[in-house]
Amino acid sequence: MKxxxxxxxxxxxxxxxxxxxxxxxxxxxxxxxLDDLDRCHGHINSGDSAARGERIHHALSILMxxxxxxxxMVDNQQDRPPSANELPARLLELYDHCLACLTSVxxxxxxxxxxxxxxxxxxxxxxxxxxxxxxxxxxxxx
Length: 142
Hints:
By secondary structure, this protein is mainly α. The protein has a single domain (24-141), classed as Up-down Bundle (Four Helix Bundle (Hemerythrin (Met), subunit A)), CATH 1.20.120.340. It contains five helices and no strands. The chain has helices at residues 4-19, 22-46, 49-76, 86-108, 112-141.
């Protein structure tokens, strides 16, 4: 059973996501993923394996949403030249590598894979943040 705080957070983020552009939604997902990695790092350091498992599970759920978005992009671009699939294909590679990192954390209880996943996602998140900002500016001028 979900705690009231978890349900509120889920409701709050779901409400925000319905109002935002795809770029802003994706940026929010990246931020939630990074927050989960940070919390997991703390749980590993404090020896709280139950909380660590919960954070890893949540991070994996977010990662699968992002991965499914990339797969949808690939499916939507099948009629286009192969170069159009380059970005979604690279995102899929990134997400698969992050999945491997999180699986390693589950097996080894080590923070190094968390740092690797965080570094990769943080870089990509910066690009999505920029796209979300540009989208917001374009919306304001229209």
